[in-house]
Amino acid sequence: MFEQLDATLLARFQFAFTVSFHIIFPAFSIGLASYLAVLEGLWLWTKDEVYFALFNFWKTIFALAFGMGVVSGIVMSYQFGTNWSVFSDKAGPVIGPLMGYEVMTAFFLEAGFLGVMLFGLNRVGPKLHFFATLMVAVGTLISATWILAANSWMQTPAGFSVNEAGQFVPTDWWAVIFNPSFPYRLVHMVLAAYLTTALVVGAVGAYHLLRGDAPKRAKKMFSMAMWMAAIVAPIQIFAGDMHGLNTLEHQPVKVMAMEGHYQSHPDGAPLILFGIPNSAAQRVDYAIEIPKLSSLILKHDLNAPLAGLDTVPKELQPPVAVVFWSFRIMVAIGFAMLGLGLWSLWCRWRGTLGENRWLHRAAVLMGPAGFVAVLAGWVTTEVGRQPYTVYGHLLTAQSVAPIGAPAVATSLIAFIVVYFFVFGAGTFYILRLMGRLPRDPIPDLTEGPIRSSGITPAAAHASRSHHHGA
């Protein structure tokens, strides 16, 4: 049944499917880990029980999201050996160590302190527990750093040579890690994770405000999330613009696809807002465009010339329609985030942040928008790199394993069934938890932490009993 299908296309779709499921969990857990550190720090500083209740609430959700992120990430790594073994052989000397460093630094750090963060408050005391929470947050950021370094090297490879076996061999690790697109992509992704988390937290807070549940805690949650949206959204738009300029310098064909520029424009290129890309005819049908604005955005000059896809052989052009629309979805959501943040500032200035039900409804609707924007951004950057896996050096068709289409199709179907069942159930449970605002009491830490020597629970209890008896 699957004999007529293209094994390379199926392998690409399988990796896209698994990475799309995976990325939504790190995008959430990176921001949530930092949010937990902020909540615990504010609780220790102010002694306000609202912060501790919110910390406990989001701590459980973080644990579930982190676990699903780990499981979905492990599955992806196996595909390097099954569907992409040629890529692994050729790029392994560069990609392998970067992935290994992520495990040895970030994952070990996160795993080492996660148990303390989840279960250790009454055992290690508040200060050491706060340190553990900080280490988990730092670990998520280090993890993003290594993964983005590996992916950015595939986008803008540097610091390598090719040996006689056709393998990419690192010659300068600093150049490999800090390749030309790495700083821009790291900042863009971390800010995206913070915005994604802010929208989820804001949606949950708004949901409980609309229901009238625990208004003090819900309002605090909502207020913190809206501050994040209002501050980070404009920074993200600026960072995205800088990333776009970097992409224009190092991956101009990707920008041509994003902009829908099939034709070169020697005297200023228009900004195509909407249209239907037609790769067969090499044009955008029904285009709605603003003259010369693309040149102004990309070159800061209305009349700056911009090359088009007519300068690129058709076999080296990415799938324009996918890149064109995914880019517009990402940008549209980014400006929607900015709008929500500005609206919240207006309501905050008027003193109606906790009462404006239309703002709350908008925040609930925007809850999943961060995940959609992250997925659209990854589709833009990964599909826009095609037909290469290592940009300009290794074609995707040369990277796939010698495996038949039926084998890839069968495993793809299995992935789809298992993923929707397992991660669907996990996501459903997380949503159930979000629907119930906690009412946790503040722990009694006056006796100090439980230690392995010295003060033990039994000894502490006996001491208290003796004191009360006296």
From TrEMBL:
Residues 448-470 are annotated as: Disordered. It is a multi-pass membrane protein. It is found in: Cell inner membrane; Cell membrane. The chain crosses the membrane at residues 20-45, 57-78, 98-121, 128-149, 186-210, 222-239, 322-346, 358-380, 400-431. Keywords: Cell membrane, Electron transport, Heme, Iron, Membrane, Metal-binding, Transmembrane, Transmembrane helix, Transport. Pfam families: Cyt_bd_oxida_I. Coiled coil: none annotated. Belongs to the cytochrome ubiquinol oxidase subunit 1 family. PANTHER family: CYTOCHROME BD MENAQUINOL OXIDASE SUBUNIT I-RELATED, CYTOCHROME D UBIQUINOL OXIDASE. This is Cytochrome ubiquinol oxidase subunit I.
